[in-house]
Amino acid sequence: MVGKKSLTSRFSSYFIDWIHTFKGxxxxxxxxxxxxxxxxxxxxxxxxIFVWFMVLAIFAASWDFLAGFVGQVSxxxxxxxxxxxxxxxxxxxxxxxxxxxxxxxxxHTGPLPWWVSxxxxxxxxxxxxxxxxxxxxxxxxxxxxxxxxxxxLILYQxxxxxxxxxxxxxxxxxxxxxxxxxxxxxNPISTNPIIEYFIIxxxxxxxxxxxxxxxxxxxxxxxxxxxxxxxxxxxxxxxxTKYKVIAFMISGFFAGLAGGLFAxxxxxxxxxxxxxxxSFYAIIVAALGGIATISGAGLGAFIFVxxxxxxxxITSIFSGVAPxxxxxxxxxxxxxxxxxIRFFEHGILNWALEHLKDAWDFLLGR
Amino acid sequence: xIILIEDIxxxxxxxxxxxxxxxxxxxxxxxxxGVGGVLNQAHGAxxxxxxxxxxxxxxxxxEISAELDxxxxxxxxxxxxxxxxxxxxxxxxxxxxxxxxxxxGVVIVxxxxxxxxxxxxxxxxxxxxxxxxFLIDGYFYIFSIPVYYHYVLIIIATVIIVILTMLFINRTKxxxxxxxVAQDExxxxxxxxxxxxxxxxxxxxxxxxxxxxxILYVPIDVITPHAGWAILLNSFAxxxxxxxxxLSGSVVGAFIYAYAITFTNIxxxxxxxxxxxxxxxxVMLIVRPRGIFGKKEIK
Lengths: 366, 299
Fold this sequence. Notes:
The complex is a heterodimer.
Chain A: H1 7-19, H2 22-40, H3 44-69, H4 78-93, E1 97-100, E2 105-108, H5 114-136, H6 141-160, H7 162-172, E3 182-183, H8 193-216, H9 218-228, H10 230-235, H11 240-265, E4 268-269, H12 276-289, H13 294-318, H14 325-343, H15 348-363
Helix pairs in contact in A: 3-8, 3-11, 3-12, 3-13, 4-5, 4-11, 5-11, 8-9, 9-11, 12-13, 13-14
Chain B: H1 5-36, H2 43-64, H3 69-96, H4 103-125, E1 139-142, E2 145-148, H5 149-171, H6 173-183, H7 185-190, H8 195-217, H9 227-242, H10 247-268, H11 276-287
Antiparallel strand pairs in B: 1-2
C-alpha cells in the first residue's frame, strides 16, 4: 500500500533508511564538508577550483551513466559539453535571435538570465542526444566510440571554420563561430563567488541524486539489462531502441548542464571545448572513481582536479629556480594518473569504501 | 572549372606520399586491434619516440660537423627503431596486460601514456617545431610539380615494408601464431601459444611500423610534441574506413583517405579537408560499420 502514502512521507522514510546506511552517512559527511568549504576558502580563484571540480563531476557522471549503466561507451562526450556551453554563452550574451520582417534583418532579444540559458543549453544537448542516439543504435562497442569521436571532431572543425564565422557575423551581427568563440562579459551567476559556489553545489547534488535515482528506477533496471545482454533484452519484448535513445538524451541533458556551467565559470567558450581532450577528461575522471558508480565520478573529479592543483602549487613555489617547471607539473600529473589507473583497476571509490567501512564501524563503536 | 593536369599530378603525388605514411601507421594500429582487441591510444606516442630520437642524433652529429649528417641520421634511425620496440613492449607488458579484462581501462591507460609522452617531450625538447632535412637531396619535375627523391624513397620503402609485413604474417610460423591469437585467444593458448608473448610481438611490430613512418615523414613535415594526436586520429579514421582488424583494408583505406584529403585540399577548399575525413567515417559507420574489407562478424 505504498501508493496511499503521501510523497513527502515516502521520501522521509526513504531518507531515514538511507541515513542509517554507511553510504548515506559518508555522503552526508562529504556534503557537510563541501558546505563548510567557504568558511575556509573565500577568494574567487580558490573557490573557482572547487567549481571546476563540481562541473567536471557532473560531466563525468553523465558519461558514467551512459557507459557504466547502459553500456554505450562514447568517446565524443565533449559534443554535449560544447553544445550546452555554446548555447548558454550565446543566450547569456546576446539572447534569442529573431527575424524582423519589416527590414529583413536579424535582431536579438538581449541577454537572458543565466538559469534560463543554462536549461535551454541542456535542452539543446538533449536534442543532440536524440540526433546522435538514432544513428548510434546501429553501432556497437568500438564502432560507437569511434563514431562519436568523429562527430565531436566535425563539430570542432565546424565551430572553428573562418568562412562560417564570417557568414554568421554578416547575417546575425553576432560572433558565434570562429576561433574566439563566445566570450561572456556580463551576467555572471552571481557577483559573490560564495553564492556562485553554493548554486553550483546545489546543481551538482540535484544532478547526482537524479542520476542515481534513474539508475535505481524501473528504467534503470532496463538500462542495465541492455548493458548486460542486448539480444536477451530485445527477446524479452523490450523496446531496446527506445531506451537507448532515452539514455542518450538523459546523459546529454546532464552533460549539457555541465557545459553551461563550464561556460559560465570560465567566462566564455571557444571551439576547444569540442576537442577529444574533454571527452577523455570525462572518461579518466569516471574511471578514476570507478565505472558504474555515479558517485565515483565525484570522487574521481575531486582527485583529478586537486592532484593537478597540488602539483601546480608545488611547482609554482620552485618556479623561481627553474622556469621550465610548468611542464614538469604536467609530467608528474600524467605519471600519477597512470599509476592510479594501473593499480586501482575498479576505481578508487570501491577500494575506499571497503577500507573506510571498517574505520567507520570502529568510530561508531559497532 | 578547368581541371589542370598539374592539379591532377599534384593530387596523385602528394596523395601517394600521404597514403604511404598513413598505410604504415594504420597497418600497425589495425594489427594490434585485430590480434589483441586493443585500441592503442599511444600509437602516436610511438611515432614521437622515433621521430624525436632521429632528430636528436641528427642534431648531435650535425653540430660536430655538417659532413657527419648522414652518419647521425643512420644512427638515429637504428637507435630510434630499437627504442620504439622497447617502448612498445613496455606499453604492453606494464600497462595493457594487467588491465586487459576491461576495454575502457586499456583505452584510458594508453591515453594517459600518450599524454605522458607528450609532456616528457615538452620537458626535454620544448614545444617548438623541429625539423630534419631529407635523407637524399635533389628533385625532378612531373608536369611542373617538384618530386623530391625522398618521395620516391618513401614509396619504395613503404612497398617493401608492407610486403614484408604481409609475408611475415601470412608465411612464417610466428605469423601463424599471431593469426591464431587473432582468431581465438583461448584456443591459441590451449595449443601451447604464449598469448602474452605474441601480443608483445604484435605491439613491437606496430611500434616499429610507426617508427619507420616517423623516419620517412619527419623530413616532409615538422615534429611537435602534440603531433601524436593527429597521427592517432588519422590511424583511427583509416582503420574504420578499411575495417577494424583488416590489414589489407587498412592499406587500401589509407590511400583512399589520403587521396580524398589531397583532392579536397587542391580542388575544393583546404578548410573542408579537415572535416571530410570524419564525414567519411560517419557515413561509413552508418552504411557499412565493418569497413570496406572488414570481417563479417562484429562483436
